[in-house]
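Page 47, continued from p. 46.
Same chain as before, 410 aa.
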Amino acid sequence: MKTHIKKFLQHKISLIVLACVVLAVMFLVGVYVGKNHAPSILKITSVIHKDPQVTTEADFEPFWKVWNLINEKYPSASKIDDQKRIYGAIEGLVSSLEDPYSVFFPPAESESFGEMVRGNFTGVGMEVGIKDKVLTVIAPLKGTPAYKAGIKSGDKILKIDATVTNNMTVENAIKLIRGEKGTSVTLTIFRDGDKEPQEIKIVRDVIELPTLDTEKRADGIFVIRLYNFSEHSPELFQKALVAFADSGSTKLLLDLRGNPGGYLDAAVDMASWFLPVGKIVVSEDFGGNAEPRIYRSKGYDIFNEELRMVILVDNGSASASEILAGSLNEHGVAKLVGTQTYGKGSVQELVNVTDTTSLKITVAKWLTPKGVSLSEKGLTPDYLIPVTKADIAKKKDPQLAKAVQLLLQQ
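Result:
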């Protein structure tokens, strides 16, 4: 190791701040309600204060016709708040993108999502996504009710209590799964290799997101198990690397299995400990809407050629996990061992629409340093090592065993 490693590592890293950009997308405001006593269906016909930047040839007449038909024919239409209808219309607008990760949050949902991002919420403790149009568990978080109940990465969620999940958005699923501490939710899941679905009952609790833990093995291998990429992860990862340097080991095993990701900046910062300044960590592909945005190593680059590194990944490794693993693998720093990663390669931006509402919208796709899209199939490990039911029953970990073999051979 380079002699200045400890001093450099102990410098304080600035914590990551989620940047929210204000974007005005609600142009359906200030509607004119005409008091026309003639027998006309179309009482609301225009949009006042329309955003001058919005240009569309779309015909809004059907929208207003339906609005008025609801008023005239729906029995309890007068009890439905008009603003709630507008929120519903915006949700429909966003759902037309057919992107499960782009979602509009009305006030209650916006507050709830903010709590979840900050890592302080009640629920079962698992990350879910849409894979092959099916609601799927990305990963249960270590130590949470979902983890303890036996939920696995890749489990397909068919029902939440009595509600079928067909065509359900991720956020609507989260809304149903989350709840008050002490209450329960029953998930009907189908697991690859099973013949029939199974029901798993989970009791909700306060979720404290774990970040990482470390271990110096008897064989000299230093293990860092990273569970998420939160705003505090870079600082804790830095401390873990200090412990690695103090241990005297040159063999590092980074376990990203079941890590659903988190902040991009955290992944870039972590990669920077291993890469020279300017090396590409990941890039954002905006699909022709703008020039790609390239994120490069900050160049901490504290390890010399003595470092031996292996990263463990599986189908629960997603998003920032794939970014970190992909960059270190393609730059020749680490070998990957495990199974195919999840493939969560889209970039979402959280935008404040109003003081109480927000929009999470996909703006780009992640590309590895060599230009491989993480959204397609994720990462393919250098050593594909499946974990069978027999392995689990015997409490064997063939992926860990392979990683240890590679490190000791080197």
